[in-house]
Amino acid sequence: MSQLESTLKDLLVREAHLKLSREQLMPIWAEKEAELRAMQAAKPMFLPVFSKRRRAEYETRLTALLEVVGILRKGVEVIDRIEPHVKKLIEEQIENILREDCAEYVQALAALRQKEDWARCLDRVSEKIFEFARALGNVRNLACSGYARHAAAYSQGAVQAFTLAVEAAKKIEEEVVLANKISDTQARQLVENGFNLRPLPKLQQTEYGVWVSRISALPLVEAQVQFDLLIEQTTKLHAKGIPELRARAQSVDEMQVAEVRNFLLAAWDQFRAEIASEIYPGDTEASVAETERMLLSKAQISVLGWR
């Protein structure tokens, strides 16, 4: 075995003995704790004639039981304290192995990171919607103030404002296309590597530019109605739609991360099965004690800054 594999095997053996030790201790501890509570609850009355002898007997039994419970409790506390550290070390080892030897896992991790790119697109969509809303408000004001009713024509300033609003709308649409492309790419990469997971949300195409162009061809009275509808829709998207998309993406991301981690956990279970035949109950006490010493030594080295 390589040094890396040997390290992982050693940690897996330690983990197995910690689990076995817990399984051995917990039933006995629960039994003795119940016995202790019963003894304390049934503390006898000490009459003057018999008090000294009976008190001594009771206190002797109570002291002995307290000592047993204390030892068992300490044993469980030791396991509770060191087991998470051992598991963390094992996970780091398996993570390294998968990163080096499993292309599917590496590709899945890369796909997960695309959520950050998608989120940045969504942020830009939010910014572009805000900019579009300002352009829309400007064009509506200019359309009203410079409208020639007899010719049913907008002023040159309003025409230019319409053009700027269309351009602002196109910037939203460009970001939506990019966000959806990222979602599609991520979904494809995950599926290709064996992870059939729920993809990041897709954004609905806005087509605000087409809407503004249609408004520019309408008489002012009809245009005002369409301005109100468009402003209402953009306001709703900015205030409610974007936060909802962000929340859905967070939920999807958490699910995806959990599923990819399950791949690591499956490998972990496989490694556990491979060393199961080498776990002997007679070695458990010594293994737990040695693991505690090992972790204490690591902690001291870390505090002192050694490597």
Short description:
Helix content is 83%, strand content 0%. It is an all-alpha fold and 307 residues long. Helix 1 (3-41) runs antiparallel to helix 2 (51-101) and helix 3 (103-145) runs antiparallel to helix 4.
Number of domains: 2
Quaternary assembly: single chain
User: Rg, please?
Assistant: 35 Å
Q: Strand-residue fraction? A: under 5%
Q: What are the defining features of this structure?
A:
2 domains; disordered C terminus; single chain; 7 helices; 307 residues; elongated; 0% strand; mainly alpha
Write the layout of secondary structure elements.
Layout: H1 3-41, H2 51-101, H3 103-145, H4 156-192, H5 208-216, H6 220-275, H7 284-304
Question: What does it look like?
Answer:
The protein is mostly helical and 307 residues long. It folds into 2 domains: 3-101; 108-269, no CATH class. Helices cover 83% and strands 0% of the residues. The protein has helices spanning 3-41, 51-101, 103-145, 156-192, 208-216, 220-275, 284-304. Residues 303-307 have low confidence and may be disordered.
